[in-house]
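Write out this protein's structure.
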Amino acid sequence: MNILGISAYYHDSAAALVADGDILTAAQEERFSRKKHDARFPVHAIECCLKENNITLRDVDLVVFYDKPLVKFERLLETYLSYAPKGFRSFLAAMPIWLKEKLFLKTTLKRELAALGGCEIPDLPQLLFAEHHQSHAASAFFPSPYEKASVLCLDGVGEWATTSVWLGDGNSLTPHWEIDFPHSLGLLYSAFTYYTGFKVNSGEYKLMGLAPYGEPRYLDLIYDHLLDLKEDGTFRLDMSYFNYATGLTMTNAKFDRLFGGPPRKPESEVTRREMDIARSIQIVTEDVVLRLAKTVQKEQRTQYLCMAGGVALNCVANGRILREGPFEDIWVQPAAGDAGGALGAALAAWYEYKDMPRRANGSDAMGGSYLGAKYADDSIESYLDSIDAKYERLEDDALMPRLVGMLEHGKVVGWFQGRMEFGPRALGGRSIIGDPRNQNMQSVMNLKIKYRESFRPFAPAVPAERAGDWFEIDEQHKSPYMLIVAPVRPEHRISMTEEQQQLFGIEKLNVPRSNLPAITHVDYSARLQTIHRETNPRFHRLLTEFDKKTGCPVLVNTSFNVRGEPIVESPEDAYRCFMRTEMDYLVVENYLLKKEDQPEWEKDDSWKNEFELD
């Protein structure tokens, strides 16, 4: 039975194909449309799912949408009524699209599917709707290695729920309790993202990366005025400080007065205030999540925790749950945001709607999250020839030593191989890689390759079997999806002098903290990715070869894109990004390209304005 899951119309639309419970293909629309966080109907993502598996829409048995629009509409109406007459402008702005499209989403979806499949609406597969947090919970539990586990979902808001707790057991997910809108940890974090001048729904990573530069000077202010946090982790927000329930902004004038001024203007200088605010709200978020995790384990007496929802992408909080929480292990859905809802909806239909048995055999059903398209040599070569690109084709026995030599000499390499990753992180399929021992690598990658803020840290990729030698993570724990932060081991750290300890903010950036300065954050932490031979043998081999030559099994791994642009999907995307940046080499499968050998590329910086900078 083929089940197609779809998420769309909010942000990060995606499609996923599940056959008899096996996850075959999953992809985000943004990778094809080249519009970051694209929310439109995922035409290209669906086509990818069908094409990769040599089927048509007529071969699909069920199509499942990831939330229930009528319930969401009920929440909007009740919210506007409860705040009336406030929010009237927002109400007028929201209603036309609901009355025209979203309220009749079933008809819209059928029309889009019929156009895509070239068939009549009566011939379409059966269409089902899952609940938003049900989709999150299914995406977290069903692909996990556990037969039984607690499930914690935290995001901005679905229909009503912003936090939900479930018990996963076999093929069933039982909801236990939830916290409803407007009280939302995700929206609280997004409010501070907005206030510090970053873009909501994409700038949260920046806020998390900025936090270690600051001090928690605003901690008491948040607890005393914004958040009523109980010992069990449940909470309520004082909505008089926020505008997101009915307004067009996240925070209001009362919030501004509390924090001593208006929000930072986007693209302006990041000051000490923003750093301290980031540190404060990050600590609050970790505290809430840790308390919730302890409460869930106390109530359900389980050994394992699964997580999804946008807040589950906060890898610092996840690291604390792993180190300080009551669970033996945790598993976080790599596409934890709305894109993963497409996969969760399909899995929920198979296991819960169809009541099919599930046998968790201790393995991760996401397969490293390499669920997108893979490109064959003939299509790669055909494209490269069509633009007169200069390349060598090398087998891995010759290619790997060449790459190691390049990396060892400080070169930055675009690494494109295998299937595209599903989720917001590049995991060694569509990555930019470099030598983490190089003191200048972080600034070079940020400013000359990624065109992004200099303070943002990079992630280390390390073979799973070597992770414990360099980072404080137990041998039985894994971090294949870059969703766990772990400290660098003490023996690899560089102690700071008394003078260096007096530095503040971005000044800390230029002080090397370890033998791997490019991936060590100012608090000695690293956003760790463990590479497994079973799921990505080629990247694992490169790391192993680098270790043999240098004694270091770690490489910098960042996503193959520039700021404001989605991760590359095709060889064409990869070559374009390669030529527009100061990358030195590009590897597309077994094709090696050197920048200086390429035909002249017309210098055109207008592309930077095509995408909304976040």
